[in-house]
Design goal:
The protein contains no helices and 19 strands. The chain is mainly beta. The protein has two domains: about 170 residues, no CATH class; about 80 residues, Immunoglobulin-like, CATH 2.60.40.1930. The strands form three sheets. Strands 1, 2, 3, 4, 5, 6, 7, 8, 9, 10, 11 and 12 form a twelve-stranded mixed β-sheet that branches. A four-stranded antiparallel β-sheet has the order 16-15-18-19, with no helix packed on it. It has a three-stranded antiparallel β-sheet with strand order 13-14-17, with no helix packed on it. It is globular and about 75 Å long. It starts with about 45 loop residues before the first strand and ends with a strand.
Length: about 300
């Protein structure tokens, strides 16, 4: 149910969207019919960052779950640009790998090495970017693992603070250049989000510490086993963070023979089997491509 006067957003994916609500949708009473989570033995870590000046404030939120994807998933929310007419405001968003700006960022729960989350910030006065003192507040921490350390890194001042113990940070914001606010232009349709700049003064660094004791701390492609083999062999690799992984097999001339994996995989150890019963004896190459790098090894099929 949507209560009277309760605001909500609908993201339209079509070119000419229409949302029709007829009289049958109205009710004077009712029950909540969504899902209620109970008995969660592995609660999701969450926290928020608030950015403020003397007048305005805004915030961005972080959560970490097993269902998170590297790009946008159902729990993410784009950073919305204020409607035209609001000329003075603050802008804060977390930045994904493909430069999308999120107000709510759902991130992978498990990682074996420290991760970085860029923060995009800006301040606007009378429709244009402005220099001014700003204030971070770190709050709403829930279910943070004991082993985690969460740092804010200011690359301009070379400052690093642990936001689990220091809950505020004051700084002087300097606009890169004088630019018009994204909402300071008449548009045919509302602007939902913008791509982030390649330069971000701030980022979060989260060190998993002892929480990652069961996860690999490096990207590694192992030698297949058995090797030599006939007719099948297993290929193992480890990922320290969730990644898009492409595992392929080539013959000695570089022709692709098989694709064993082409998907987003969580941090951890992964094993794939290659059945070469239809292939000729010889030397083959297998290659793993991820965001952590590329590794190639040889294997020998003997029939």
């Amino acid at each position: 149910m949507i209560s009277p006067f309760q605001g909500f957003w609908v993201k339209a994916n079509d070119t000419s969207p229409a949302l029709n609500v007829d009289e049958d949708a109205k009710t004077t009473n009712g029950n909540f019919v969504g899902k209620i989570v109970s008995g969660n033995n592995n609660p999701e870590p969450k926290f928020s960052i608030e950015l403020s000046d003397d007048v305005n404030r805004t915030s961005t939120h972080f959560m970490f779950s097993k269902s998170a994807k590297l790009n946008k998933d159902s729990k993410d929310a784009y950073r919305l640009v204020p409607p035209p007419g609001i000329s003075s405001y603050l802008d804060l968003a977390s930045v994904s790998e493909n430069k999308n700006r999120f107000s709510i960022n759902n991130l992978p729960r498990d990682f074996g090495i420290p991760i970085k989350i860029p923060l995009s910030i800006d301040a606007y006065e009378k429709g244009f970017s402005a220099d001014k003192p700003l204030h971070f507040v770190f709050k709403d921490f829930k279910n943070i693992p004991v082993g985690w350390s969460v740092y804010l890194v200011d690359t301009k001042s070379n400052t690093e603070i642990n936001i689990l113990t220091e809950r505020t940070y004051l700084f002087n914001h300097t606009a890169e250049r004088r630019k018009a606010a994204p909402n300071n232009v008449l548009r045919s349709k509302p602007k939902i989000t913008v791509k982030a700049s390649s330069k971000n003064r701030f980022y979060l660094r989260i060190d998993p510490g002892t929480e990652a004791s069961d996860l690999p701390d490096e990207f590694m492609l192992s030698q297949n086993y058995p090797n030599p083999f006939n007719p099948s062999t297993k290929i193992k690799f480890t990922l320290p963070v969730q990644s898009n992984a492409l595992l392929e097999v080539f013959d000695i001339l570089g022709r692709k023979i098989a694709t064993l994996a082409s998907e987003e995989l969580p941090a951890g150890q992964h094993i794939y089997e290659w059945d070469a019963s239809r292939q000729s004896s010889g030397v083959y190459l297998y290659r793993l491509v991820t965001s952590q790098g590329i590794q190639i090894k040889r294997m020998t099929l003997i029939k």
